[in-house]
Amino acid sequence: MSFKKQASYLTVFTLVCAAVLTMMMTSPVLAQDKVCMTLPPGEAAYAAQMSLAFYYTPYNDKVSSSKTGTFPIGKTECITIKDVIPTGLVPLRVAAELHVLMGVRITCPQISYKPNTTGTINYIGRGTTMMPSCRLQ
Q: Residue 57 has what pLDDT?
């Protein structure tokens, strides 16, 4: 492979890495001590369970909490972060994980974690059993 080709690959790789790191570093920071998921009628077509994903490195390695009980369309389920966060560890980011009954599991958008604050991170679950999605409210 020629030097020019190697240099162009290195440039592209560097730009992609820079874009990913910038995106990760600029994720929203919200006051947080609780994470909630709502399944609105007319937007979500499934019952689900929820867990939290904790990210301790910039590489998207995660540790997941245990799942909540099942909640139906039209309901909101919440998890208090301090009740499920691994002892002695402070994550960089947190995200809700949506476990669709008889369907798939997806991870919602990540939020930079700011310990010792109060407030709620709200997610909205949408879609169908095999094609769910979630977004921050």
A: 87
Look at strands 48-55 and 132-136 and give their pairing: unpaired
Give Cα separations from 3 to 6, 10, 51 (angstroms).
5, 10, 48
CB 117 within 8 A of CB 33: yes
Taking alpha carbons only, the member of 110, 108, 113 closest to residue 98 is 108
How far apart are the C-alpha atoms of 27 and 45, rounded to whole Å? 28
Is the model's pLDDT at 25 over the cut of 70? no
Q: Stretch 53-62: mean pLDDT, rounded?
A: 89
- Closest residue by Cα to residue 37 from 129, 131, 120: 120
pTM: 0.75
Beta bridge partners of 134: 125
